[in-house]
């Protein structure tokens, strides 16, 4: 597995296009892998765009093989210095142990299922959770199955925060797609390393093609 | 010399310096005329009253939370529906927080401070529809205005701090002394008389001050840090 980080230059026209359309970003990330370089069963390419404050924007990708992002650099990156960085992720994943605590960040598409109308039982559709409370509950409900727990913390460094909520709207093959997203940040405690490893490489929740579902971990104490 | 600090914070504020007719602008920060007008209202001065004692105060503003620009397209008719008023664009600052200050003779500053505690007329942030959401008066001190502004703690809201960098530069706009280079603004009130409002020019000098922001969430999450740093 590889974790890659690529700074995006938001002043470039290509970056505007990629940032405004998850569909276009999905295509760009998919094209970073040669056809047949990995199969579904080995995992998938997950990505997420993070705002880094004044520093700018970065694209993170987790993938079974090393990506070649040079076409994204051409459209939307910086062509000087380090254009992107890919590091081997497997060693880190193998080092996860129960009881460890990490800072995490996740952009997800929290949804629940509702019946399309009162009468049509059995006919359901996914509807986005819109409030912070529902979105947090959504994640907490999944934590155990994903091999982690959210430890209790004092209020000012709450272990689970929703730092951004937004709705993505874009066109896909002539019809419009709407995805409600929530960005979670906080502290997690590893409970089941095997389950967590699988979530870190396969993603959590829906809309994984559109920048949702990638959980990243960072050491605590640096932010 | 004594300085008086007030906090200008509310859902909406509007500080027009040069608006005319149906387009009512707002500046990025409170105007001297707006704040002196507010002090005059606290003292119970009428629009036609003499205000030379206020115009001689030294004025400064610190931008603690710049807020965002809000445009209101306003249509209005008279109560009986017969008369239609001109369509107008009104601009506001929403969610802004400023610390404004004046400096002058101690006796005058004391008088203004007690007037703010017990104002004669309702006080608002530049436009009648913009009430303040916090008590205005912060404190008086014997320091200079600039010193006083620099000493006073950052007033931004917690949600705003969280979105800022770990170190934030606040802008301070101060009245410039004679002969100093700076921006020119025509907002020194000579008369608020509705029949003939008059304003004079003043020079505004920009300064910066850095504040630490421990509430920042931005330095945030660096997944590469767990893998040897980015």
From TrEMBL, chain A:
<dbReference type="Pfam" id="PF08798">
    <property type="entry name" value="CRISPR_assoc"/>
</dbReference>
<protein>
    <submittedName>
        <fullName>Type I-E CRISPR-associated protein Cas6/Cse3/CasE</fullName>
    </submittedName>
</protein>
<dbReference type="InterPro" id="IPR010179">
    <property type="entry name" value="CRISPR-assoc_prot_Cse3"/>
</dbReference>
TrEMBL record, chain B:
<dbReference type="Pfam" id="PF09704">
    <property type="entry name" value="Cas_Cas5d"/>
</dbReference>
<dbReference type="InterPro" id="IPR013422">
    <property type="entry name" value="CRISPR-assoc_prot_Cas5_N"/>
</dbReference>
<protein>
    <submittedName>
        <fullName>Type I-E CRISPR-associated protein Cas5/CasD</fullName>
    </submittedName>
</protein>
<keyword id="KW-0051">Antiviral defense</keyword>
<dbReference type="InterPro" id="IPR021124">
    <property type="entry name" value="CRISPR-assoc_prot_Cas5"/>
</dbReference>
<dbReference type="InterPro" id="IPR010147">
    <property type="entry name" value="CRISPR-assoc_prot_CasD"/>
</dbReference>
């Amino acid at each position: 597995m590889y974790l890659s980080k690529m700074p995006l230059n938001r002043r470039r026209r290509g970056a505007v296009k990629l940032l405004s359309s998850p569909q276009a970003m999905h295509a760009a990330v998919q094209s970073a892998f040669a056809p047949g370089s990995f199969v579904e069963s080995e995992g998938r390419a997950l990505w997420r765009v993070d705002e880094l404050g004044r520093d700018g924007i970065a694209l993170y990708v987790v993938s079974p093989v090393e990506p070649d992002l040079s076409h994204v650099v051409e459209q939307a990156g910086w062509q000087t210095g380090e254009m992107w960085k890919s590091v081997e992720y497997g060693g880190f994943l193998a080092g996860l142990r129960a009881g460890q605590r990490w800072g995490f960040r996740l952009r997800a598409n929290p949804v629940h299922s509702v019946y399309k109308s009162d009468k049509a039982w059995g006919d359901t559709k996914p509807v986005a959770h819109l409030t912070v409370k529902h979105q947090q509950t959504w994640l907490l409900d999944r934590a155990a199955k994903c091999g982690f727990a959210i430890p209790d913390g004092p209020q000012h460094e709450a272990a689970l925060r929703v730092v951004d909520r937004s709705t993505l709207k874009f066109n896909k093959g002539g019809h419009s797609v709407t995805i409600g997203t929530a960005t979670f940040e906080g502290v997690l405690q590893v409970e089941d390393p095997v389950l967590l490893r699988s979530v870190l490489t396969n993603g959590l929740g829906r809309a994984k093609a559109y920048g949702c579902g990638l959980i990243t971990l960072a050491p605590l104490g640096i932010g | 010399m004594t300085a008086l600090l007030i906090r200008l914070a509310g859902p909406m504020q509007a500080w027009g310096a040069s608006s005319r007719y149906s387009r009512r602008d707002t500046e990025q920060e409170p105007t001297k005329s707006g704040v002196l007008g507010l002090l005059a209202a606290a003292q119970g001065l009428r629009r036609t009253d003499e205000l030379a004692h206020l115009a001689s105060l030294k004025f400064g503003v610190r931008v603690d939370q710049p807020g965002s620009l809000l445009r209101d397209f306003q249509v209005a008719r008279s109560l009986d529906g017969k008369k239609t008023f001109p369509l107008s664009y009104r601009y506001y600052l929403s969610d802004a927080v400023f610390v404004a200050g004046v400096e002058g003779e101690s006796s005058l500053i004391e008088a203004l401070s007690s007037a703010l505690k017990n104002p004669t007329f309702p006080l608002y942030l530049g436009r009648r529809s913009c009430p303040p959401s916090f008590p205005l008066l912060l404190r008086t001190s014997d320091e200079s205005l600039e010193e006083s502004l620099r000493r006073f703690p950052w007033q931004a809201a917690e949600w705003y701090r969280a979105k800022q960098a770990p170190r934030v530069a606040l802008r301070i706009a101060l009245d410039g002394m004679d002969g100093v280079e700076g921006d020119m603004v025509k907002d020194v009130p000579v008369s608020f008389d509705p029949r003939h409002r008059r304003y004079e020019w003043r020079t505004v000098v920009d300064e910066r001050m850095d504040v630490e922001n421990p509430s920042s969430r931005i330095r945030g999450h660096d997944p590469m840090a767990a893998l040897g740093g980015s």
